[in-house]
Every structure is written in C-alpha cells, then in structure tokens.
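To whoever is covering the structure queue this week,

Two jobs came back overnight. Logging them here so there's a record in the thread.

Job A:
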Amino acid sequence: MKKINTTLLLGALLGFCACHFESFDERCAREAREYTEKQCPRRMDQYTLMDSLTYDDHSRTLNYYYTLEGVLDNDTVMNAQACESLKDLLRKNVVNSVDLKSYKEKGISFSYYYYSKASGKVRFQARFTPEDYDSNYSPDR
C-alpha cells in the first residue's frame, strides 16, 4: 500500500512539474520580453537607439527594433549602398554571434527594423533565415 501511494504521489508530482516547463518558443518570447523590460530603450551609439526586442512564435523570428536619429536619419546617408553595407554587417554579426547560438541551432530567424525618429517610418529592414546564416542548415534538422 505504501509503495502504491508513493508511486501515485511521484506520478502526480511529475505530472504537475511537466505542466510548468516552457517550450523553446515560449522561452524565446519570455526572454525577449524580459530583455526589453530591463534593457530598453538602450543607446547603441550616438545615432541609434534600441527600442525593443520581440519574438514572433508563428514565424519563429526574433525582431530587433531600433530608432535612427541625427546624421543617420537622413536619406542621403542611409542610401541604397549604406543599407546594403548595414545588411552585410548584420548578417555577419548573426553568423558569428555566440550569444545567438542556441537560437540558430533551433532555426530561428532574425529581423532588424530601423525607424526614422523624424518621420516614424521604417528606414531599413532586414531578415535573416537559417539559409542566410548557416551553410550546414537542413530544414529536417
């Protein structure tokens, strides 16, 4: 009888604990929310402010939101060539980032949105999927 009660108690405890484990996507959403609450807004440099970080579980994408101001909030400076250079730099950062390793291993995409402080419109955006940052990527992985 004591063995049955112990087994039932252990089974109930395991069942209760299993209900409280978060999925990888839930963890991503929580971590993005906590990062935003603790770190944002965050001054990246003289012209760039990080506004927030979000996670979209439907597209499995971490979204980084920034505001450009001053000299960078200008069509002359943020021309097609500058945007292409920024895209290349962001891609290299994703490829080489150790901090993003666990996300990349799960095939998460990364989107970057840069808004104009003056107009509020998107000045630049880029999205990187596993095909963009992992030469060994396989969708079956």
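Job B:
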Amino acid sequence: MTPSSVELALIDRWQHDFPLVAKPFAIVGRSAALDEQATIGVFRRMRACDLISRVGAVVRPNTVGASTLAALQVPPDRLDQVAEVVSREPLVTHNYEREHDLNLWFVIAGGDAGAIAETIDRIEAQTGLPVVDLPMVQAYHLGLGFSLREPRAQKRQPPAAGDYRPDPRDQRILAAIENGLPLVEHPYLAVADQLALGQEEVIARLEHLVAAGVVTRFGCVVRHDKLGFRSNAMAVWNIPGEIIDDVAAIFARHASVTLCYQRPSRPLVWPYNLFCMVHARFREEAYAVIDELNLLADTGLMQQAVLFSKRCFKQRGAVFSRHKETN
C-alpha cells in the first residue's frame, strides 16, 4: 500500500505530542482538515495496513520495568527455527536477523529484571545457544519520531529523566496501552473503564510520565520499512571510555541518528560499546551518514561495524503486563 498524502502528514505530525485530552482525534484531525470520525478511520486503516504499529507511549528503558538488547550466533540452517523460539517469548518486542556472526538480535522488555533473566534462561535452554546480553549503560539520544521528509534541522529532545516516583497505576496504564490506544472517540475513557480508574486520572498519569521523561514520546509508532526506509543500520564502535561521552554527544546531534546509546562490550564475542541507529532508503544513504559521523567525531580509525537488518521476525511495543500471552 502506498500511503496517501493525508496519511503521511498525520504520521509525520503525530509521532509525538499526541493529545492527552478526552477526544484527541478531534484535535488530530484538524491538522489534516478531517473531522473526528474520518480521522479515526484513517488511523484504523494505517494500523490495518501496518503503516503504524500503534499509537501510544515509547518508554525510556529501565524506568518503568526493565529491558535489554541481546544477540545469538545461530547456525544459518537453524536460523528460522531459533528465531521462532525467540519470537514466541512474550517479552521479546523486536527480533531481527542482522548481517554479522551474531546474526539474531532481539529486545526483551518487561516488568522487572527477574522477568528479563527468566526469558534469557528459557531461550538458552530451548536453543542450546548462549545469549549475549547487552543491557543499557547510558542513553544519549532516544528518537522522538522519524521524519518522513528531510531530516529535521533541529532535533527534538525528550525531557531528562527527572524525579519520578513510581506509582502502581503507571504500570497498569502502560500495560493497558502496550498494543496501542483504542482507536475510538474516547480512547482514554476506554482505558480507564478497563482499569476501573477515572478518565482524568489516566490522562494525568500519562501527562506526568511524559513530563518526567519516563515516556520519551507519545504518538504514532511507524513501520519504517512500509514507508520506504528499508536500510535499517545498527552502527557500532569500540570507543575508549574516557572519550565515549564526547563522541556520543557528536553522534546524537546528527539529524539522521534516531538512537544513540552505550552498552557493555563482551570480550571475544562483541568488542563494541557505542551504538547508533540509522534508517535510510538505501544502503548508500546509511553509509554516507556513518561516514559523516566518523568525520565529525574523528572515529574513522576506531574499530567499528555496520549491521544491516535482513529480516524482521517480530516488532511490537514493550510489555508491561504480567503473564501476557504471546501474540
């Protein structure tokens, strides 16, 4: 499906700052000269056609719940079978084949560190392969949307993670919308009724999570490949610890870098500690961005690699509910 100009405009505008009001689609529609019901219809169609995966919260790692990035080195003749095992795990949110000896990469995100560890243990037991666990050390840039036109000259920055005091309602609310807001006239009321809370209570908690930097953006989560951005590059470097913050600051400012973060290296199997995500229409575009990063940060001679994704086996939002059945 080729997205219409209206769909592209709605996606581009509402990847962030989706209205936290009783009737958000009435406001959203005004930006495209649509009435409320027509707007809801467009969003339902975009979700059905996989242009967007959901409208909802993108949560800063390890604030509410826990998460990690992990990888496996899978013999090529076992890749489909092992990928199926990994994707069946309820807490696995993303599962990709990438071009590297470590060829299966997945994100595990759930309620707490114990649930993450249990997931890793099950995967190792079922596959007979050791999981390379790479938890977040430092997040330098968490993407606040994905421009469908030229990269924005001024990147949006989320609020720093502030003085957030966990509230038991927050995890329940995030669990209720982990697959996205209901695409109805009163979505927050639908969530509130499900949780036996008040609508204003749900909206107020989401506003607090956004203000505290726990939710880094609230809006459309796009399917990049469905919109023509098929060269998904995970660029990684081995950066000395004494300069990693300075290098990361340079990388994070680049308009084409959607994520930048530090993870631990693992001797013998994974020497890299700084990660950047670059989404491009073609490989040449991705390589051009990485070349520019190396020039800006003087990292061209440092050990590095680019892992392009080959296949997506699973992609969904973080899981905050407990005992969630696999989709």
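Note for Job B: The chain has two domains: 5-56+150-224, 66-145+225-315.

Please reply-all if you pick these up so we don't duplicate work.
Q.
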